[in-house]
Protein 1
Amino acid sequence: MKTVRDFNFKNKKVLLRADFNEPLKDGELTSDFRIKAVLPTIKYLVKEGAKVILLTHLGRPKGNMVKQLRVDPVGKRISRLLNKPVKKLNDCIGEKVEKEIKEMAAGDLILLENVQFHDGEIENSPDFVGSLANLADIFVMDAFGQSHRDYASISGLSKKMPSCAGLLLEKEVKVLSDVLNNADHPLVVIIGGVKISTKIKVIEKFLEKADDILLGGALANTVISAKGFAIGRSISEESMVKEVKKLQLTNTKLHIPVDVVVSTDPLGGADKRIAPVGNIGENEMILDIGIDTSYIFNKIISQAKTIIWNGPMGLFEVNKFAAGSQETARAIIRSKGFALAGGGDTITLLEQLGLMSKMDHISTGGGAMLEFLTGAKLPGIEALK
């Protein structure tokens, strides 16, 4: 894979695909972790005299122009962090965009509008790839968090124009390759979050590689349901129960909660109680892992030499249901193993607890990190080879 150090960027128009998909609240960014991760690449390109054209997506607009998902807050934050103007355009392709780019001087920064406002991005349409490729001389891929997607600006552009990896992508590949190929055992994988449908293949793969897999969050509810236990009104993917039953549910490596925190109100307005799995009322919801589960999980984590963590253990955004996720985070920090975390909610939780600097590596990708660590080929990376 070529990197930015293999190119001369002087006076070249460089299209930099980054993953600035930061969380938003009331039109303001609530984190800038991913933006900061790409700054070294932007600074490098500016220093080398490139005309830097930034491209990202934000949220899931599904090919529509969604006002709340315009990337203006991203441009403002980049400008503030670099103390340098960033010109934000109202589209990512077309004559007006090409005209603005033509007028750029070396070291200038332009931010294009949300690439997913166009259907052609997710469809990876050759026409859309061509329109993006027209904008620049060189393509720099630095969106590791999107590298598992076969999209126009992720895998399409690398096949169309001179391309290389940015400094962030290069670092992610280096760190994760080391974990993939040389992880010390016991290797413990902690997977939480909502959907098991997006993570079931990863769980299957890790059953071969890992020593222990700890499941929490709403995705564990689907596994509990597949084992035949009642889960009340808990969030689960009933359509996945059949698939989950094909997992080696009796495999001793696979650990699911033995007790859970339940309540009738996920917003925290009703009482909560700790219930053994299998003793959940039909009106109750599983919203966190229980004390016994935390104890078992923490014991396994404490003996690990390598820990991979993606996804919270419960509805940590509500204080009443945050203890399991917080305790898991602290157990990982206390352990002597190499700790690797990734995924938007995981990062939010670590930021809340002030534990970001205590992890050995925080990946800018959640799904991309997990897929990479199972040995899968990621389209955005393969296209650069």
Protein 2
Amino acid sequence: MQRLFGMGAFSNDGDDGDDGDDGDDGDRGGGTGGRANTQLAQALWRTRGGLTRGIDDIGTPKWTPAPLDKDVFGRWAGDVRARMFSFELLSGLYFDSRRQGKASLYAVDLAPGQGTVPVKIRGSYLIHTLERPLFDKDEDEFEKELTKVLRKTALRPERLPEILTQIFLPYSFYAMLLNMQPGRHRHTRELMSAVWALSSNVVMQFKHHLRVRRPSDRSPLVQPVIPVPGHGTYPAGHATQNHFVATVLEALVGTALGDDLKVQLHALATRIAENRVVAGLHYEKDNEDGKALGIELAKYFQDCAKVPGSALEWLWTNAQREWTKNI
């Protein structure tokens, strides 16, 4: 079994986009975690000298033997939390790649523990299995799939603005649909980043093992309108990521999400994935199986968010409050 244990970038299917992790607080000095600025650092030092002149010894520093805040996750920077989320999510996964042309993703089955032990490991369960698609093994099926891709190119004039902007993580599209605002829904955005990070790590494992070539590798008629990512086509990363995030958002938002919005939420995930076929990067089968993988990953993500005392439980609780307050 191959452990999935790493921290991959929060990016779309092969494209290095914004990871949603606002590590730079905008300060260009050295005092609040921003980038270093020599002039500001000197100004701060001289100001400090003027303010502390006349104070003897060490002044009156704050000290307490009590434990740190219970909400310690809220004290950490966003990039620190992002690494904690990734660690928790990837620690519970392993990837079975022993069979050629077929691979399975498993998860540790976690149950609430007793006393000081937060969880018990009860065993493992299958999340999802994928195998090389039929079109990569049968010439007739390949021709059918390629024909679908070529027919989708007719949509390029209409879809090109979406295709270009969705190279990066499509926060804006979900914000438009759900009326998400940076201040009121900052934890929801952070949760979406964690979702996309896990998706990228998992999808790359399947892509590497199955190694299915892209439409443009097979036919000179495809001619993609954006750069072709440097990895395999199957399963589709955009399909996995967006059906994953749509399923998680539906569970997170709950009663604040009406029936019309639920329909639109999943329609958005489908459209974003379809745009990659229109662009010439994927087959429809890539999206179909990517969607199935994303939905199963959403269940695993929600299980991880129920582990008491975990960073993910903290994140889910705070993100959910952002929506219950709006009802």
Protein 3
Amino acid sequence: MIPVMADQQEPALYTLYSTVHASKVNWLWYPYIPEGKMTLLQGDPGDGKSTMMMHLIGEITRGGVSPDGIPFGEPGRVVYQCSEDGVADTIKPRLEACKANCENVAFINEEVHNGLTLDDERLLNTIVQFRPRLLVVDPIQAYLGHDSDLLVAGRARRLMRHLSEWAAFYGCAVVLIGHQNKKEGSKGIYRGLGSIDVVAAARSVLQISRSEDDPNLRVIHHIKSSLAPRGDDIAFEIDPHHGFRWLTSRIAEAQTTTAYLSKREKAIDKLKEAIQKGDITDAEAKSLLASYGVGEKSARALKKTLGIQTYRKKRQWYWSLGTKE
């Protein structure tokens, strides 16, 4: 055994839950879309997943209301990343039809920045610079790098991990839109394409289905909710003559609280809280992370993953959320 010098301090191996303070979950749309977490929206092609999200984006970007009449608050920014439709001839007209404030909607131009994947740092840089309240990836299958990536559990977890950490650190809600597989006899939670790890990473899973009796009627089923009770079904209609409209409403319930899911998540949250109060020294940052069991090597990797900037001032290095000269 290697002896530890008296002046050396190693990070604690374990953390007592008595030292963990429960934190409140912030919601973009309670209880369907939490902020700082990932939501999976799945359904068969043509069932209205993108159309439904466009109408939510319209309300969010102009400070409107949710389908159940709850105000979204101040107008929020949205990154809508879509590979299946043309930017100028399809997406922009749809945004305008949904009365979205297009000054608050951005995208990464894939004609210039091609090869975009879910764990691409260009997504992180966009979140850091634009500070959206919502990031929508439509569809998830187009941003995997290889089609097989989502089927391999380890690769799926790695893809989800960075995106989850970025979402948590910057308080950005992430909605991944995905097509369903053809196992119609399976439970809804198993009908997403790829590994079950994708569903496991999502804190909320919404599934859209088309009514057998009315081809214009769609229903959103809340099939997974890790942070709140599952919400009621929400129905909407896509009529060839009258267009889109919500058909049901519900009364929002009080928000709930949750404890941190891991020491790493608590460390990220505490680091974010510290830096938001003002830039901190490299020693302070590493000491804070070490107190939650994150060693120096992991701290360097976490700094890179979260896009934290460093700069030197008066012979000290500082951690910052913005670039410093």
